[in-house]
Amino acid sequence: MMHHRQHSAYLVLTDGRVFQGLAIGSRGHRVGEVCFNTSITGYQEILSDPSYKDQLITFTTPHIGNVGVNAVDMESERVCASGVIVRQMTRTCSNYRADQGLNDWLLAQGVVGIADVDTRALTRHLRERGAVNGVIVSDGSDVAAMMALAQRWSGLVGRDLVGEVSCTAPSNWSQGSYDLDAAEFALSDATTPIAVLDFGCKQNILRMLTDRGLQVHRLPASSSAAQILACKPAGIFLSNGPGDPAAVGYAVATIRQLLRHDIPIFGICMGHQLLSQALGLATFKLKFGHRGGNHPVENIVDGKVEISSQNHGFSVRDDALPEVVEVTHRSLFDHTIEGLQLRNRPVFSVQYHPEASPGPHDGAYLFDRFAQAVYTYAAVD
Amino acid sequence: MPKRSDIESILIIGAGPIVIGQACEFDYSGVQACKALKEEGYRVILINSNPATIMTDPEFADATYIEPVTWQTVARIIEAERPDAILPTMGGQTALNTALSLNKHGVLAQYGVRLIGAQPAAIDMAEDREQFKRAMDRIGLEMAKGAFAHTMGEAQQIAAEIGYPIIIRPSFTLGGSGGGIAYNPDEFAQIVASGLDASPTDEILIEESIIGWKEYEMEVMRDSADNCVIICSIENLDPMGIHTGDSITVAPALTLTDKEFQRMRDASIAILREIGVETGGSNVQFAVNPADGRLIVIEMNPRVSRSSALASKATGFPIAKIAAKLAVGFTLDEIRNDITGKTFAAFEPTIDYVVTKMPRFAFEKFEGADCRLTTQMKAVGEVMAIGRTFTESLGKAMRGLETDTCGFDFSLPEGVDGDQFLQEKLAVAGADRLWWLGEALRLGDAEGWSEARVHTVTGIDPWFIREIGCVVALEESLRGREVAALTVDDWRQAKREGLSDLRLAQLLAADEVAVRSAREGMGVHPVFKRVDTCAAEFEAITPYLYSTYEEECEARPSDRRKIMVLGGGPNRIGQGIEFDYCCVHAAFALSEDGFETIMVNCNPETVSTDYDTSDRLYFESLTFEDVMAIVAVERPEGVIVQFGGQTPLKLADALQSAGVPIIGTSPDMIDLAEDRERFQQLLHRLDLLQPENGLARSADEAVAVAAKIGFPVVVRPSYVLGGRAMRIVHDEASLLRYMREAVSVSSDHPVLLDRFLNNAIELDVDALADGARVVVGGIMEHIEEAGVHSGDSACCLPPHSISQAVIAEVQRQTEALGLALQVKGLLNIQFALQGDTLYVLEVNPRASRTVPFVSKATGVPLAKLAARIMGGKTLDDLGLTEVAQPKGFRAVKEAVFPFVKFRGVDPLLSPEMKSTGEVMGIATDFATAFAKAQLAAGSILPDHGTVFISVRDADKEGVIEAARQLQHKGFTLFTTAGTHRALAAAGVASETVPKVIDGTRPHIVDRLISGEVDLIINTTEGEGAIRDSKSIRQAALDRGIAYFTTLAGGLAAAEAIARGADVTAVRSLQSYHAAEA
To answer: What is the C-alpha to C-alpha distance for residues B1009 and B1017, in angstroms, rounded to an integer?
Structure first.
């Protein structure tokens, strides 16, 4: 019943482990860091999230592609992950919003993938062994040669991937969130300008900022403080993005300059890690990262638990916290820092993804908080 | 927040007897709640009338009341125990309603008891349709459009706002009569007219039809700090229109985008907050229009439910246990996740497998029942299966049902119009729609059954249809091939799509053994993976396992001494919670004796499938294939097949032949007891009697046997469960009709005929034996005479009318049989006492339905002791010389029936078992215990009014005393002519009322409907009389009038009424047993 002939494919890990499966998407081979995501829903959002650049995503949920792909549930213009690893590629798609089947989409986007893998065994391997590099091979290339290729690959640590996914020129964003009932995106009547520093920004962040009446100026990651301030922003947003935060020193320097002003700043994920560095904190690579839609985060300020969407392989170190910095959120899984703020100013950031998409909406209040700070700043200014 | 310190004692209300819609999932939740609260140091007080539950084992609560679950009884318990709080969310709708009544009647206020987990206002808002709708309006969520109308004009106005199709439901009519679906204004006018006419209040509910929409459930938890988490999403494969309990469901939801899922998540949490569920778990049901995604809220249950039991088993997140802890003030982030040991309950489980739940029906038990699946639940049990993919779990669930199917093995019957036949089977869902759907897809486009048409006809999501289509296509690609020709890839693919060895054997025209050995020869085995709540992100320290055809096995068996217990599979009539109770006890007992215990079962409702009941849990179907796969990995020292009912027993021979060490009574001895000829020889050797009997392989032989032993005869097919197709036949014509219509008799499947013992008293005995000694655990005297299935008969322990001499003889014969069968473990024997002669009816050297009842009555845990014997202990080791029988009280067990769910079925008791559950009444005298059991079963005995008495000739003399007692008590007597004459002759005056067939009106049914009768004693004999009196029983059932269809039952009721029994008097089990000791 499959629509195409089934070709074998391999997932070759640099530690020597090889998984055999069936080719999905395009034929070819792609190197990347192998990671796993435990979300049950939202493969389209995950695959189009720029933060997954240079990663081969293992979906732990076994059925992938059931609801197809549509024009709305995109987090960027394209598939950003390097490859897809699934237990079972769907045999049909069924959803009133589906425009296309997942496999056709992967083909059209030239994305390589492998199905029929014991993804649970792979996940357990990654959990025990830690993040590992690998290569998906679906073009018949020699496995040993491919392993050598993957072993030669530089990996994520120390690499600036932000530069590869950030927008190249400033632009404005005016689309609000998608309303399922009305089947349309909300219209923007935004007037208060903010600057979004794009490190590989998920579109839902831009939509949620827009929903709150903020006029989004999206700027390349390499923008200077002067260029950013030139938009006269009443707030600065630091976006999510891929790769090693320690390799984006230029952005840290920029943020440090921005911190000299009293403009409200809000960062998510990479933005949080860069802000942390600008505040004097270091980052480190987690053993196997946090990727999923069920991560509990404790809000230390009010004691409540938020269920969050997460996607990060690096984290902010917990030592040498400057006096002015306060930890606001912690992971209830491993107690790593999930959020912090300046004690004296509306400068705050979270490691997790309050914009969800995919994932629960528990963190949406952070956008309200930012918008509030922006409005307060704009009113005073 | 730490636990509440302002509370010291908590009363938990149980759900009462197992009925359709409220089954052993509430034992599971009650047990978890009791354990969780005791663990925290609270004094736990429990009420539940169901003795077959684990929760009513005396060690689970500080005070256990096996009493009727009514507000009046609970009020007496509150008066006696003065609990600080009541937890009403663990015992289903029964517990919630009881709590509401206690509140309404001021009992809570009077004694200063508060509800925890759910407040009356919240329960009310969730239950009351109008209040709930207003609440949904407030938070901007839609419900199905609709309103009440009292006139045609109002109705048409509402219709104009809704649009067609429209559902019309008259208020307060029985079984929804007078309602329907209208697709156009003409139909609408017609149905509204008949609906208004049918409704006693001239009221109809007019509602938008959402039949065919996708149906979802969300299991949500909230704590006192307002933290909310979704434990599990469930998608119904069968769309709206079929009760979720009757639907095939899967977890997680498989056909939602993240946006749709998150919208449902947000809505679920908003609903909990708006309704005001302070803490605990709730179930929220949604419908989604597949065409445009429109979301409709169906309902919410502010309590633990069947779905939450399923969600707990599906995810490994113990909802009831956590809900109990939240109710006493803990927050989710303070409660550890047992499965990982490292993380906390404040998270949302994510799973990396697919769970399929399938309902199990019992329509074959209820002649004349409407077998169509509708919005009223009819399933009596369910099976759950876990697989890595939908098709793998579906295949496991199908074979786990034990309905003689091993996959998509239905094919069109000869000579039918296939198109029309399938159209009907698919459009009107019955128990087997899934199988016919498979057949339609097999016929495929060429025969007019495209996937699109199957979707249009069934409303089932195209995704599921394609998946099933792939299974069927794979089957066809294998059909007719040689077993030896299959490649490793073929085997692997077949097994990964969920095809059982048995199904492959059918397709490959081989036997299961050949298929199995060929598959194993190719090295294709299942591996076991863990249910871990987190999709492998963290290590699972709890071995909760399922099989799948993948690469890596996570079983990690230990090298401890271990015993495996095979459970009972899905509940069905004749095999229910009692057997799960025994399996759970086996696990507890063997664990105490130092064994590692391994449980195998596939019933999500049970305590046995709790991950902390045994050391290791395999959630697997109970088939030879699935059990052997576990044995291969675990290599247990012993396997117990005698506790789970027929399900594991059926496997005993095959397992033993395969070298599996079965412990306890040998399968050969079990077979001896079931094999008619071998058993007869045994009785002969022991010089014991059985009713005269014979075997017939054809109708002619049956007539000949009956002629020899004399009518009436009891006829039944060989090897049956729960008296399936068993009848008492009074004449040759009826016998021939039975042979023609009721059974398919053949030389392989002969029919058994036993002489029916008129007016005999049946006795049930449960005993323990170790091969050298036999100890009687309890003797129960049935209240209904022999001829009513033992599972449907009320019984009393100790016997209330049997002489010591007979009891001694029962003990002697029990010992003789126990020793002869070399029983090691449990033994159940049914005797019939006719005059002074004792006949052996049946011997079952295994767990019986009455084991929990006897254990509750005597305080001796028979199943536990039996398991320890099976593990190698002797009765001497256990120090058991006798089981003391209660002296200061009597315990009555009464059966509970599902007739209200099966309108049109004659609620007459017969040799075929029909009850779904049981209750226990305890009191110092028999009559009060009987009346309490009646009350617990939902039959309220009147203390004044009118009794209608009409009995068959054989009972006329016997009923006189009862009539006299009732008259003396002030009852008016209605009788039919014959009974009137018999009573008059004895000097008891009564008013004659015409029978229905007399043609004079008002006849008895008219008087019943008019509400003039409060109690019925009506016994009948012969097919004609039974047919004529059916309308009396139906009317009694519809109106909730207490009725007795056996003389013994009627006499017991009359005695209880005459005595003015105090049915709400309460006393704890612990207190009864302490007084006996």
So the answer is: 16
**Token reading at A298:** 């404790």
Phi and psi of A152, rounded to 5°?
A: -80, -20
Centroid of chain to Cα B645: 14
Nearest to B708 by CA among B732, B688, B692: B692
A220 neighbors A250 (Cβ within 8 angstroms)? no
Residues of A in contact with B261 (CB under 8 A): 40-41
The domains found in chain A, sorted by start residue, are: 8-152 (3.50.30.20), 162-380 (3.40.50.880)
Which amino acid type is present at position B630?
I
pLDDT at B774 over 90: yes
Tokens (6 digits) for B956: 């006329």
Regarding pTM above 0.90, the answer is yes
Q: A1 falls in which pLDDT band (50, 70, 90)? A: very low
Render B680-701 in DSSP notation, one character per residue.
HHHHHHHT-----EEEESSHHH
- CB-count burial class (<10 Å; 0-12, 13-18, 19+) for A342: middle
Note the pLDDT tens digit of each residue in A59-89. 999 999 999 999 999 999 999 999 999 999 9
Record the tokens describing residue B724, joined without a space. 């399936």
Provide Rg for chain B, Cα atoms: 29
Catalytic pick among A45, A80, A269, A329: A269
Among B94, B102, B97, smallest CA distance to B73 is for B102
Q: Specify the pairing of strand A265-268 against strand A236-238.
A: parallel
Report how far residue A68's alpha carbon sits from residue A1's, in angstroms, rounded to the nearest whole number. 17
In three-state secondary structure terms, B868 is helix
Query: Phi and psi of B882, rounded to 5°?
Result: -155, 160
Whether B567 and B383 have beta carbons less than 8 Å apart is answered as no
Q: Let me know: does B320 contact B604? Beta carbons within 8 Å.
A: no
Instruction: Name the residue facing B257 among A60, A67, A91 (closest C-beta).
Output: A67
CB A178 within 8 A of CB B259: yes
Between CA B861 and CA A288 the distance in angstroms is 50
For residue A40, the chain B residues in CB contact (below 8 A) are 233, 252, 261, 350-351
A interface mutation test: which of B214, B235, B262, B289 has the most A CBs within 10 A?
A: B262
Mean per-residue pLDDT, B412-416? 93
- What is the distance, to the nearest Å, from the Cα of residue A284 to the centroid of all Cα atoms in its chain? 17
The Cα B626–Cα A270 span in angstroms is 48
Interface contact A181-B294, CB threshold 8 A:
yes
* HSE-up (13 A, CA, CB side) for residue B259: 24
| Phi, psi angle pair for B598, to nearest 5° | -125, 120
Query: Nearest Cβ partner of B551 from A88, A121, A295?
Result: A121
Instruction: Take residue B740 and report the two structure tokens written for it.
Output: 């023609």
Encoding tokens for residue B394? 């579906």
Q: What is the CA radius of gyration of chain A?
A: 20
Q: CB–CB of B916/B20 below 8 Å?
A: yes
Beta bridge partners of B559: none
Residue whose tokens read 């054997």: B505
Position A381 scores a pLDDT of: 65
In three-state secondary structure terms, B766 is strand
CA B865, chain centre distance (Å): 26
Residue in A73, A294, A298 closest to B348 by CB: A294
Q: What is the mean pLDDT of chain B?
A: 94
What residues of chain B, 538 to 597, have a C-beta less than 8 Å from chain A?
538-539, 550-552, 554
